[in-house]
Fold:
Amino acid sequence: MSVSSKTRASEKFAELSDRAKEAEKRVAAAQNEAKAEVERHATEARAAAKAHADKARESADAGQAHVSASWKELQKSWSEHIDKMHGDLQASKAAFDATVAVNDAEDAESDALAAIDFAYGAIEEAEASVLDAISAWKQAEELSKKQ
Structure:
């Protein structure tokens, strides 16, 4: 892995850490906000997530030869899952029955916690992938020196 790639990976992990801290603060603050304000923040967060996913997809498409098919498929599957979750959430907001609303809220909370667990695993996988890339570059350097 080149020095610039190592630096870029390290910077991306720092950005990820900063973004997670920002999300933590926003979630904590939302507990004391009015429903309309929380909904506005959720809409903004969804728009930001979509913009990031679109940008990541464009980057993956541009570097098609270097991004594995499994990552592209995961990205597509995740986008479809998010779209379905948002559709389900919109449908549940139309519920007039308090029991249905409570069940929908519990489902939304479970989905949120599952998304956090998924993100945690994705961070661990990203770390392992960066370390694998560094190792592969070291192997390539060693073999180049022998030839």
Observations:
- Residues 46 and 52 are 10 Å apart (CA to CA).
- Residues 33-94 form one domain.
